[in-house]
Amino acid sequence: MSPDRETPAADAQPLVDRMLCIGAGLLEHGAEVYRVEEALRRLGRAYGASEFSAFVIPSAIILTLSLPGAPSVSKMRQTRVGDTNLDLVDQYNQLVRDLCAAPGDTRQIDRRLAAIAARPGYPRWLQILVYGTGAASFALFFGGSWQDAVVAGLIGALLRGMGMALRGIRQNAFFVNLLCAAAGSAIAQLTAAWLPGAAADKITIGMLMTLVPGIVFTNALRDFMAGDALAGTIKVTEALLIGAGIAVGVSVMLAVLQPVLGVV
């Protein structure tokens, strides 16, 4: 249904609600802030907004929309930190493209949003397998043996399971990565002490690479390049805090275990 056939005064508020759902879906699953703002801006133009503004930061979206003949509607939605899921980002992007090409009514948008919400996420076993494979690959990349790669892979898989469990009880990223780094470092040190030929440093760096906030830092740089300094600064700060958590976790375990085990 085109926006000309809708009653602006009746549909402004529901449209804002759906746009916030789309923006939150993009933001929570790994989209950059500038991408969310651009998607909302395009939707506003597609629905004939006479006034439109969107303010997006990683934790909130503030949207103001006015359709012809209707008062402005302004609303804020707080967003939560979710796991990166580029499949869902692509689905929300496709919804935005479809609505820009042929604006639909709120019932059509609701059906599409429900279909996206019903899509299964990445299976837990697949995430654990991928993290384990990544840790093993990094251990080999940094000069470790196949034995080191196997140990790093097992630790990486274990840490992914641990991270998902901690996220399930609403722990923030700093403490999740601190605890995972500490646990992984402790296992690497103990394994190197008990397993002949194992290199603690290669195992440790392999499993730590799965914790590095690469996507967060990349999104921060992309927001900076798009001219959104505030969002970029927030994301860089988040990446630095996660990195600090990793460093603290590893340092504590090294300080505690190395004098006892004599592992270098």
Secondary structure: elements and pairs:
Elements: H1 8-28, H2 33-46, E1 51-57, E2 60-66, E3 73-78, H3 86-101, H4 106-117, H5 124-141, H6 146-168, H7 173-194, H8 200-208, H9 214-225, H10 229-261
Antiparallel strand pairs: 1-2, 2-3
Helix pairs in contact: 1-2, 1-3, 1-4, 2-3, 3-4, 5-6, 5-8, 6-7, 6-8, 7-8, 7-10, 9-10
What does the model show?
- The structure is a single chain.
- With 264 residues, the protein is mainly alpha-helical.
- The chain has 2 domains: 3-117, no CATH class; 124-261, no CATH class.
- It is built from 10 helices and 3 strands; from the N terminus they run ααβββαααααααα.
- The longest helix has 33 residues, at 229-261.
- Mean pLDDT is 87; it is low at 1-10.
Number of strand elements: 3
Main sheet, how many strands, which sense, barrel? 3 strands, antiparallel
Q: Main sheet: which strands, in order across? A: 1-2-3
Unreliable parts = 1-10
Residue-averaged pLDDT, rounded? 87
The class by helix and strand makeup works out as: mainly alpha
Please count the helical segments. Answer: 10
Order of helices and strands: HHEEEHHHHHHHH
Number of domains: 2
Beta-strand content bin: 5-15%
Query: Which bin fits the share of residues in helices?
Result: 55-70%
Q: Quote the distance from N terminus to C terminus.
A: 68 Å
Shape: elongated
Radius of gyration: 23 Å
